[in-house]
Amino acid sequence: MDEPSREAALSALDLLPMKILALLLALAFPAAAARIELVAGGGTKDQDAPATECALREPFGVEFNPAGEMVIVEMTKGERVLKVDAQGMLRGIAGTGVKGYSGDGGPARAAAFNGIHNLAILPGGDLLLADSFNSTLRKLETKTGVVTTISGQGKSGYAGDGGPAKDAQYSTLIQIALDPTAQHLFIADIGNKRIRRIDLASGIVETVAGNGKGGVPPDGAEAKSAPLSDPRGVVPDAAGGFYILERNGNALRYVDPAGKIQTVVGTGAKGLSGDGGPALEATMNGPKHLCLDRDGSVLIADAENHVIRRYTPQDGKITRVAGTGKRGTAGLGGDPLQCELARPHGVTIAPDGTLYITDSYNDRILRIVK
Question: Which of 20, 35, 209, 344 could bridge to 223 as Cys pair (CB 3.0-4.6 Å)?
Fold first, then answer.
């Protein structure tokens, strides 16, 4: 054996006791298994009580404000904006609980909404609300408690590109999401089959994907000229691109920084298959929401399959992270993969990396604890 080989062998022997020690420690102190737990909903109280003792009414979106509080929006059964404070108490922020369109310029608790699908939170803490069936974007100023409409005319339409966002028209806003710099707000304008974007500094709105016609976009096409079936979800990434989730299209698309679109998840067929393999060979069933994890992977609320899935662009694979694929309520407190979900309409990553799920038809919010 030559000298370099001898030295390499001796170095490997030197490391052997450390490897054995690491193995023994892993056997003696195994990593705690992940579990899924209830954090809000499932009770009978209204509010101003522990969140797990309160009743939620079809929760959809969840985000976290600068104070670390979880902010919740309810869909058509609730029409409210709520928060879970540092003491775990559920508090009301906005909404009367009655469907309508009113309250601009006044206290948010007296305002009426019509199907709040999602929200985004500005760095200063103000809330942006997708008042979906009013086709408006509304703002709740947390310091004053006042709500206003900052974009949309209160009726369905398509207008305003290149002009002030306040004059724009939408046709059912669904997911809204800030880019990492909080300079742009992306809007899934599902009724118009388009993704819109507001420059928050200039106040100008523009279409960044979708030509208003239904269809499957060809890979490599200009996103603004391509068809989209029903863009329900949108989230921008740190590279300057953004993901689009299509509900009936059963697919995840990606628009790169150059504005080119391609499919990255889904065959387009309805089903639940492909976990552990190439994402382009997987099937989904009515996916409704998405978010980015801190590693750049994409979490998908595959709602009609009753599961949460993860797409990792690094290797192009898809995996399941929560849900059995069967609708139900069983499994809380145990393995996330053995927990039944009804219709997970939202998935969110908290600042500390914890994954939250809004299980809307079970009227509860869950989280995965590791």
Answer: 209
DSSP letters for 270-325: BS-B-TTSBGGG-BBS---EEEE-TTS-EEEEEGGGTEEEEEETTTTEEEEEE--S
C-alpha span between 330 and 321 (Å, rounded): 16
Q: What are the residue ranges of helices labelled H in the chain?
A: 3-28
Give the number of other Cβ atoms within 10 Å of residue 150's Cβ: 20
| Alpha carbons 113 and 109: distance in angstroms, whole number | 11
- pLDDT at residue number 17: 58
pLDDT, tens only, 194-207: 999 999 999 999 99
Tokens in use for 126? Answer: 């103000």
* Average confidence score pLDDT of the chain: 93
229 by DSSP, 3-state: which? Answer: coil
Residue 252 CA to residue 52 CA, distance in Å, equals 33
Q: Collapsing DSSP states into helix, strand and coil, what is residue 162? A: coil
- Report the C-alpha gap between 368 and 65 in whole angstroms: 19
Q: What are the pLDDT digits (tens) for 5-30?
A: 555 444 444 545 555 655 555 455 45
Enter the DSSP assignment of 333: T
